[in-house]
Amino acid sequence: MKEKLGSRRQFLAGLAALVPATAAIPALAAAIKPDETTPSQPAALRPAVQGPFALPPLGYAFDALEPHIDAKTMSIHHDKHHAAYVNSLNKTVQGHPELCSKNIEELIRNLQSVPEDIRDGVRNFGGGHFNHSIFWEFMMPGGAKEPAGELADAINASFGGTQNLKGKFNDAGMARFGSGWVWLVTANDGKLDIMSTANQDCPLSGGKYPILCNDLWEHAYYLKYQNRRADYIGAWWNTVNWDKAAARFAAYASRHGGS
Ligand code: MN3
User: Fold this and answer.
1) Contact assessment for residue 132 and residue 199, using Cβ atoms and an 8 Å cutoff
2) What angle do CA 159, 161, 166 make, to 5 degrees?
């Protein structure tokens, strides 16, 4: 076996040495072109449209949220849907260097400062990019933990407990007609609230700060749950990364403390 591998290596090395000479023979040149044997970046992260915005890695395996969210849905959702928002956003801001230097959160928070002719594009594609970027972080493998710390105190003060929060969040998610998002948000008053937005609109554009969100577009659940949005929302709670939500809440409170 070893001998066989060794001679195969020698054979390939011999071929590589022939590259310049064989470049004119398309079939042979294609057979030994380097990018077939040395894959670099995962295809999903390679920007299809050059620009300032990039698809963040998922941070866990596609099947890590099984059985609640299936691997196929996660793969298409991240690698196709989110990637498409990033590509469309990069296309939209082409020729606008003043926007390219901003991060996505600044851009979404200040939609009014975006030139009118591309504002809808930034709202839809930029919203899609930002919303999904935080959405991936709000889920984690290994099941849910309870909220803790300042966030737990704020949930008790605003809703009278986590179960009540979940009930209001689920109701708002079910009441959203068509595609959109459901959110747990806070604002300068430090209180928590539940809201829903249409399409890819983000609470940041209305002065609210997202603490947690769930994607209500059918692409987020249709393969496994078909029309059963309630089942999807219910199962999704098993994936929630409460530590991430608590960290966002603490970071926001420390920036806006005392106001
Ligand atoms: Mn989505």
Assistant:
1) no
2) 75
Give residue 88 CA to ligand 1 midpoint distance, Å.
15
Q: What pLDDT is attached to residue 128?
A: 98
3-state class (DSSP) for residue 46? coil
State the pLDDT confidence band at 254, using cuts at 50, 70 and 90: confident
Distance 127 CA to ligand 1 centre (A): 11
Residue 55 confidence (pLDDT) above 70: yes
- Using the mean position of ligand 1's atoms as its centre, give its distance from the Cα of residue 219 in Å: 6
Among the listed residues 167, 164, 170, 165, the one whose alpha carbon sits nearest the alpha carbon of residue 182: 170
Which residues pair with residue 102 across a beta bridge? none
The CATH number of domain 68-137, selected from 1.10.10.10, 1.10.287.990, 3.30.310.40, 1.20.120.50: 1.10.287.990
Compute the distance from residue 128 Cα to the ligand 1 centre, in Å. Answer: 7
Measured in Å, residue 13 CA sits from the centre of ligand 1 at: 46
Write down the pTM of the prediction: 0.81
Report CA(179)–ligand 1 centroid distance (Å): 9
In angstroms, what is the span from residue 181 Cα to ligand 1's centroid? 9
